[in-house]
Amino acid sequence: MTTKSSLLKVILLGDGGVGKSSLMNRYVSNKFDSHLFHTIGVEFLNKELEVDGHTVTLQIWDTAGQERFRSLRTPFYRGSDCCLLTFSVDDNQSFLNLNNWKKEFAYYADVRDPEKFPFVVLGNKVDVTDRQVSMEEAQRWCQENGGYPYFETSAKDATNVSAAFEEAVRRVLSSEDRAEHLLPTDTVDLCRKPRASGSCC
Ligand SMILES: Nc1nc2c(ncn2[C@@H]2O[C@H](COP(=O)(O)OP(=O)(O)OP(=O)(O)O)[C@@H](O)[C@H]2O)c(=O)[nH]1
Ligand SMILES: [Mg+2]
After folding, report:
1. Which residue segments constitute the domains of the chain, with CATH numbers given?
2. CB–CB of 165/122 below 8 Å?
3. Residue 124 CA, ligand 1 centroid: distance in Å
4. Residues 44-92: pLDDT tens digits?
5. H or E element: which one contains 142?
6. 3-class DSSP state for residue 44?
7. Side-chain half-sphere of 65: how many Cα atoms within 13 Å?
8. What's the mean pLDDT when you consider all of the chain?
9. ipTM value greater than 0.90
10. Position in ligand 1 atom list of the atom nearest CA 40
11. Is the entire prediction scored with pTM above 0.95?
12. I need a labelling partner for 144 at 20 to 30 A (CA). Which of 18, 99, 123, 199 fits?
């Protein structure tokens, strides 16, 4: 039995304070800390998951959103298979900045065809009451800027966090140039009967 597996690099981009680190921590270790420090540079964590029969090792890269750390984060964009453009629904400026993040990624990641690159948009902190960005205007932006999937997430109460990362994997697996990179890995089928004795090889 052979299951296809692949190492996929997913990168989180967005303004400082929108919840990128919190989303990664929620997804990987199912934890939430309301007093996280600002990220400086980048950090990454791995998570194994199974999506539609594919065993995937997701390498999640979390980046510093603050402007002063731009030169520390941009060298790590290259080689990303998917980009999670993240804003916070209680911060209208972080939503308005999505286009800048998309452009910054496309420039430094040196992607062949930015229009076909798999972006997923996350509107985080949907648990808060004082929203500044409606679901409708976020969905409209996603439609008008590439037909990107949009997820309303909360790292605080885990709403849609797994769904968003799993969709990122699906988008990559369905993009034609990625599928050929899947590394078929043989797995030992423990319940298979050993061959009748005879030649040893
Ligand atoms: N209510 C609520 N607060 C959140 C959520 N996600 C993150 N926060 C809080 O928002 C603040 C910033 O979260 P971070 O995860 O550090 O944000 P970041 O995008 O990594 O910020 P930088 O590292 O500066 O880029 C922290 O106090 C978090 O606890 C959420 O879904 N809901
Ligand atoms: Mg952070």
Report:
1. 6-120+143-161+169-182 (3.40.50.300)
2. no
3. 9
4. 999 999 998 889 999 999 999 999 999 999 999 999 999 999 999 999 9
5. helix 135-144
6. strand
7. 24
8. 89
9. yes
10. 23
11. no
12. 18
